[in-house]
Amino acid sequence: MKITPSHPFLLAVFGGFSFLLASSCAAPVTVEITEKPLVKDCIPFGINVNSQAYFSGPQLKMAVEENFEGSLYRQVHSGPMYDANGFHSTINTVVNKNTGKPVPWYGLLKGADFTILSGPARGTRGKIKEIELRDFEEAPGKVKQGSWFIFDKPLKMPADQPTFSVKNDMGAGMIVENLERVKDGTMGVGNSFNPQGNCTIYPESRTGGFGYASACIDPKIPEAKPEEEADADEGDKKKDTKDMKGGTMVFTMPYQHFMDNNGSWHFNCWMKAKEPGAKAKIGDKKFTGVQEIALTPEWKKYELVFKADKVEEMKVPSDKKRHQVRC
C-alpha cells in the first residue's frame, strides 16, 4: 500500500501501526495430537514469522504493528566491588583503548539510572554522575581496564561492610538504563517497515496517545545537505539530489508460501496534515487497489479495509513476489 500525500503529514499509532489480515476461518482451531503423521515434513504451525510474519515468532493476525519511538538502552554490569560512592565494572564503557575515541555507551549511560542487583545495597536506585576508567586485576598479574560508575548520591552501606566485593563466587551486580532516548524517535529500517525518501521523525503524538514521536512523510524531494553538514554515517560522500525522492513508507508482507496473503486487510492508524490540503493514497496498486483520503489538521483515526485476491505463490526461488503495503 502506498500513501502519496500532496503535502507533508504526520502518522502516529494507537497501540501500533497495524495491518490486520482477517482470517477466513472464524471458528476456533482445534488441534489434536496423535502418533500418526497426516502430513510429513510440513512447515511447523506458528513459526517462520516475525513481527510481519517471515522467519520467527508466532504467526499473528496483526501482521504489522509498529510505532516510531526510539530505543531503551540497558546494560547489566558485573564487577569486583562497589562502595557508597561508585561501582567498579569489568566492562569498559569510557574510551576505546585502540582508537582513543569515547565508547558510545559512555554518552548513553552518563546521567542514566542505576539499580544495584546484589550485596547489602541491593535494590537501591540512583543516577550515574560520571564514568571513569579504572584498572582491575582480572587474574593474578593480569590487569584490565573497566568502568568506575560514580553515583550522584552516596549509597547507604552497613557500618561493618562499607565495601561489597567478590565473595563466594558472587560478584557485584548493577543494571544501568537510559529510558529517555525513546523520545528521540527512530526512522531506520525495521523488521516490518522501510521508510523510503523524505521520511523523518516529528516530535509530536496525538493527545491521549502513549508515544512521543510520529513519522513525518513528505512528498517533496528533500534538499541535499551541504557537504560540511553531511551526516556522520554518510562519510565524506554528499548525497546527490537526483538520488533523493519524496517520502514513502513501505510495509512488506510475508511470502505467500509462509502465509496466505489473500483476504481482507485492515489498515488502522492515526494521521494528521502538517500543512493544509494534504491527501494520502493508501494501498497496493497490484494486489489490493488504492484508496485516497483527505487529511485534517487535527489527529484523526483512520480504519480502511482492503481486499487481496491476486497474491500468488512464487513459481521459482528467484521469483520474489511480495505483497507490499506502501504509505
Secondary structure layout:
Layout: E1 9-12, E2 17-21, E3 62-66, E4 73-79, E5 81-83, E6 86-89, H1 104-109, E7 113-116, E8 125-139, E9 142-151, E10 163-165, E11 172-178, E12 193-196, E13 199-202, E14 214-217, E15 248-252, E16 263-273, E17 279-284, E18 289-294, E19 300-308, E20 324-326
Antiparallel strand pairs: 1-14, 1-16, 2-3, 2-16, 4-11, 5-6, 5-10, 6-9, 7-8, 7-11, 8-9, 12-15, 13-14, 15-20, 16-19, 17-18
Structure description:
The chain has 327 residues and is mainly beta. It contains one helix and 20 strands. The chain has one helix spanning 104-109, and strands at 9-12, 17-21, 62-66, 73-79, 81-83, 86-89, 113-116, 125-139, 142-151, 163-165, 172-178, 193-196, 199-202, 214-217, 248-252, 263-273, 279-284, 289-294, 300-308, 324-326. An eight-stranded antiparallel beta sheet has the order 4-11-7-8-9-6-5-10. Strands 1, 2, 3, 13, 14, 16 and 19 form a seven-stranded antiparallel beta sheet that branches. Strands 12-15-20 form a three-stranded antiparallel beta sheet, with no helix packed on it.
